[in-house]
Amino acid sequence: MSAVNAAERMADFDLTEEQRLIRQAVREFAEKEIAPHVERYEREARYPLDLIAKLVPLGYIAPMIPEQYGGSFTDVGAYGVICEELARVDWVVASVVSVTNSLVGGSILRHGTEAQKERWLPLMASGDCLTSACLTEPGGGTDLGNMQTSAVKVDGGYRLTGTKVFISHAAHAGLFFVVATLDRAKKHKGVTAFLVDPATEGITIGDFPMRTLKRDNLAEVHFEDAFVPDEGLIGTDGGGFPVLGSALDMGRYSVAARCVGQSQACIDLAVKYAMEREAFGQKIGDFQMIQAKIADMICRTESARALVYRLGRMKDAGVARASMESSMAKLTASEAATQNALDSIQIHGGYGLTEEYTVGRLLLEAKSLEFGEGTSELHRKLIAEFALGIRKQ
Ligand SMILES: Cc1cc2nc3c(=O)[nH]c(=O)nc-3n(C[C@H](O)[C@H](O)[C@H](O)COP(=O)(O)OP(=O)(O)OC[C@H]3O[C@@H](n4cnc5c(N)ncnc54)[C@H](O)[C@@H]3O)c2cc1C
To answer: How far apart are CA 363 and CA 247, in angstroms?
Structure first.
């Protein structure tokens, strides 16, 4: 009996020949070079710097950075496929690509000065500068308009004070994308975006222990009167929200693509196990209740994949902001990833929670994607507000 991968056939239907080749190449690379190490790195809480370095010669680290700045941009669809295939084997490596290209690199490309582009993008594309996005604060990540980290204008720059939490890659980053407020009373109109050197005096990086993703070394970042020169301002004073908005718009696309990859991983593991494991003298894959779970996993993954690919095509067609579609893709894909992890664990029986099998690890990793770049509640709210005409962009 061999598994028929309907998901793969349907996805290929929507991809160009070049995107199909990219997907095949990334899949082979990820399975060979990354997958064998992930479990061990998680056990050792080891940040995968050496695995990230392997992305560089193949151009997978900078698929949204144009060639003139050292990147390997082809199109947004290909970027999604790269995120999807990397996430199918590793959350952290995929996250590096997503943060580099959507949040930080994307913000520099869309809102940075030419000097900022020339300074940072080639370093990011060469893998010499990893990045972090410092958005979330201890008081809450959803209500970004209520930001507490302050920026005070001083001679030649700004001084930042405050704390950011849950920051991925921070201890390894050469550049922080930070949002702070020039005036709390102005709410989102006070929010301002900065490019910050993590080695700046007044910045300290502390542990932020998580029950999952030990290998990502999540951190809290403290700013104590940290000086950022004027050249670090990205956008304008009080103009951080549009910068943030377009960063998250693209960020939600790449996170959604990553969730599709995670959903697919859960299917692949479940199908393999269902064809091996026996109960009552037959393969468990012959039981209809197991088959129903696999069918549901495939349907929700394909629904999510279709939303993600459509969003990629919209962006390739020049739609600058597709906020409602980004929310739809991110919400659908992240919930699919969590539910698929649950179903795949169920198919594995108790073994799904042992260290011998990968699938148990995937559950909390998938769940984390329901928070990053907007929670499910936020996205439901945004989608409904667009539908009701309460929100236009
Ligand atoms: C693994 C991981 C990696 C992360 N990496 C980063 C990173 O690199 N950089 C970064 O800045 N952040 C990062 N985050 C943080 C993430 O973005 C936040 O967790 C997220 O924005 C939610 O913020 P919060 O956790 O403070 O929840 P809160 O904002 O406190 O929300 C708590 C609950 O209330 C709900 N809620 C809030 N407002 C509303 C509303 N108006 N209507 C209905 N429900 C609402 C939320 O949906 C949620 O269920 C990461 C998180 C995780 C788990």
So the answer is: 26
Active-site annotation holder among 39, 356, 373, 385: 373
CATH topology of domain 6-130: Butyryl-Coa Dehydrogenase, subunit A; domain 1 (1.10.540)
> What pLDDT digit, counting tens, does each position of 215-246 carry?
999 999 999 999 999 999 999 999 999 999 99
3-state helix, strand, coil in the chain (%, to 5): 60, 15, 25
Of all protein residues, the one whose alpha carbon is nearest to atom 21 of ligand 1 is 141
To the query of whether residue 356 is one of the catalytic residues in this protein, the response is: no
pTM of the model: 0.96
What is the CATH architecture assignment of 247-387?
Up-down Bundle (1.20)
Closest protein CA for atom 9 of ligand 1: 167
Cα(375) to centroid of ligand 1, in Å? 6
Please classify residue 201 by burial: count the beta carbons closer than 10 Å to its beta carbon, then call 0-12 exposed, 13-18 middle and 19+ buried: exposed
CATH code assigned to 132-241 = 2.40.110.10
Helix axes 288-316, 240-276, angle to 10 degrees: 150
